[in-house]
Amino acid sequence: MTVKDVKMNRRWGMAIDLDKCTGCGQCSLACNQENNMPIFEDDSDIPKRVSFMELMKVTNDRDAKFPDVKTAFIPKMCQMCEGNDPKNPNPPCVSVCPVVATDVGDDGVVSQIWSRCIGCRYCQTACPYEARVFNWWKPVYEGTFKKSLNPEVSVASRGTIVKCTFCSHIWKRERDRAVAEGKLNINDVTYKTACQSACPNNAIIFGDLNDPESEVAKLSKSKRALRLANAIDLESPEKQKEMRKVKHFSNPKVYYLTSQKWLKDMLNFRKN
Amino acid sequence: MKKINRKDFLKIGGGAVAGGVGGYVLSGAPFWGAQWLVEWTQDQYVPPKGLIRYIDSVNKNCPNGCEVSVRLSGNRAVRIESRKEICPLCRNTLQLLYHPERITSPLKRDGKKGSGSFKKISWDQAYGEISGEIDKLTGNGKAKKIAAINRTESLSAELMEKFIHAAGSRNIYYESSRRADETAVLGGYMEYDFDKADFVLSFGARIAEHWDSRIDLGKKIGQWKENKTRFIQADSMCTRTASMADTWLPVKPDGETALALGIAAYLIKAKKKSVSDRNFSKWNKLIQQEFSLSETSMLTGIPQETIKKTADEFYRAKNPIAVCGRGGIATTASSLEITAVYLLNLISGTKAVSLVRNPSFPHAPEKPGLENFIETGEAELIFLNESNPLYRMAGADRLSQKLENATVISLSPIMNESARYADYILPTLHFLETGKEKVTNTENDTRDSAEIITSMATFVKKTAGLFKSPAASYRLGTKTQNAGKKFTLKLPESEKSVIGIKDRSGDAKFNLKMIPFEVPLVGDGDGMAFPYVLKSIGPEIFYRKKFYVHINRDTAKREKLDQDDCITLESAHGKLKDLYVNITDIVAPGVVAVPLGFGHTLYTKYGTGKGANIREIMNKEKDPVTGSSSWWATPVKIG
Known about the structure:
The structure holds two protein chains of two kinds.
Chain A: E1 12-17, H1 26-34, E2 54-59, E3 71-76, E4 102-104, E5 110-112, H2 122-126, E6 133-134, E7 161-162, H3 168-180, H4 194-198, E8 204-208, H5 215-220, E9 225-226, H6 237-246, E10 254-257, H7 261-267
Parallel strand pairs in A: 1-10
Antiparallel strand pairs in A: 1-8, 2-3, 4-5, 6-7, 9-10
Chain B: H1 6-26, H2 29-42, E1 52-58, E2 67-73, E3 76-81, H3 88-91, H4 93-97, E4 107-109, E5 118-120, H5 123-139, E6 146-150, H6 155-167, E7 171-174, H7 178-186, E8 189-192, E9 199-203, H8 217-227, E10 230-235, H9 240-244, E11 247-250, H10 256-270, H11 280-290, H12 293-300, H13 304-316, E12 320-323, H14 335-348, E13 353-357, H15 370-376, E14 381-385, H16 389-392, H17 396-405, E15 407-411, E16 424-426, H18 449-459, E17 481-482, H19 491-500, E18 512-517, H20 531-534, E19 542-543, E20 546-551, H21 553-558, E21 566-571, E22 574-583, E23 591-595, H22 604-607, E24 634-638
Parallel strand pairs in B: 6-7, 6-14, 9-10, 9-12, 10-11, 14-15, 15-16, 18-23, 20-22
Antiparallel strand pairs in B: 1-2, 2-3, 4-5, 4-16, 8-13, 13-17, 18-24, 19-20, 20-23, 21-22, 21-24
């Protein structure tokens, strides 16, 4: 048996408990370090900022007045859409890429190969979550900052689109380690993303959505779980079936958990 | 042989061309060619590969003693991991380790003070010259004119305390230390056992915002929800802590002290509670008179019923905790507030709060409080141990004069506002560069801060035998001892201050109150030197070089302000210019909330010149007991 003979059964997904998130920002730091984010003197032009994870501070003050207000943080990264049919994933960004720089792996991860990207930005336009960012400038790693670059993630250059890949290079590292130990079943390989392992509050849970016993699968079925701006989730199963016939929905694999109604409404762009 | 006519020739030629094109397309060559072209034009940098391995290390200079596991690629550290919770600064420590603006060797002033002109010197020259200055002072009976300002309670701070004490001075100060302030008031500081608590009442302590530099409290809030531990937060801004609490008491700005006093007065009266203290009856009479439920309600904006309900809940709880120290990583509290909160813990009979001392950090300077030292202290030689008081403290103008007139030695890895005034800068080593297994930056001639202090002591005559073991053998002293129940209040001063808190508005023209708030990772300003921290700052704080302050919708209307208006904020102590308005109802009416940690004037090119430093216009009036300024709710106006 070789590694290639084994069919991948995993379907990686993530659950983020917004009620536990304090907004400490450690997930964002770990992500930047792990994925060789470019360094700039001023990073305050946020639409042009290159980072995979955006730590969004949200509040309900548009609809509520002091003191009936609340604040929360939403760590937002690529939502790993799979489209209407999880067995035949079709994220909005993949079908528009003219050079196959982005694709869906057999583990459900929407991949992106920076060096293959020609910078047309179609995928950025197609992404419903603004999870893709464009390198407007050549990434600079001044002087000794270069020493901290992770060799497992290629450095993106100017004119390319980059995005979160669920740290799939860590999976590859873990797979190589397993193979070196003679374990050839790739389904035995598990891993932790950089953001998950950095979260001091256990607010980020990553795992296999296909495994009903996994924590992430259980959390995804929780009453507190919902997906970002995926309005179809609010409908009955029958209505969902009808809707899928006429429209393509993103159907992401990142679940947000909250018991706060205002936050649920906000995640679905509804007034509260 | 058939003669090939023109038509056949064209057919064969056409077929060959079509075949060639077809073959070229099907071979994938255009695809690979395009990819090669793309890669060639991209000019990609490829980081060198190396053997991946992990080393474990402990940051002894972090107040939490964070334990990290560093991933190395060859001899390069590429990622900080950990099996335990670690603080954001340790998480981001590679950006300090490899910071291009690190000071690489000892520096001596080479020009006018504060001019920023330095020349490189050797370690031996630095130790020799500094110890000469110390010997001169101790020899002339001026040992008390030696002072040190520590950043926080860390190993190097502990060694600095020992060194300065042995040299004959007690002038050790900390930048905003809850423990130092509480020790000045109570003779010890409150140690909270949050695992034991079944009710937590916080008076502005922003527990989710890295309060007291602790790293475990975010998780604790989650556990409180599971254990049904009630958590009530009083604050005049809807912080994340306030949103995570079971109940948020939206007090008027600076109403926290009045709330604590009001609850104490109610519990003493209604539950007939008493404390054996010589000043208690006099003090109780005063607060009963001044902080009745109706008066407290008026001062705090919280309805009487809610105050009564909160007090009753607090009293009924088995092990309640009242938390003192407003703010996140940098806390502030007046002596009155500390006393009131301690009194609440005392009368509740809780087992979750104890008054302790850490013998490694006696917190017993000649006069307590760094602001006290800035105002009246006399020093001819000042150590700045990883601290930057010129940026972080109110009253920077007076401090800069002090630094100009004294010999200043700064222990710092990078240049900052205070180090600019130094006569000697001793660059500290990163904790990953020490120990058996270490990451080395061979081009840097830097040393561990513990080693610097122990080596310096051997050069000074009076302290030559102080540190007998090598620097690496020292560990942070964490053993605490009971400080006893020392409830007391110096009444003559406090009577005035008790009534004083009822009206701190001062000049009527300053019609708004300015409060600070914390930004993730930026903390108290330390984070601004690191580019990965800049990537997490939200658009509501700093957007396209515009620095935003939060103002309530009604207040903005009253002040005729629109979103994105550029304003100047003015207090009795100065002006902050070029602030932009963000209208939001997460702050109370009458409040201007300004982010902490911005406005560095010298802190690497990443941190310099971004936003404004709130400390420039904060309250400078120092508390009579703690000697620190209670800089919360500074009266301001929009200029």
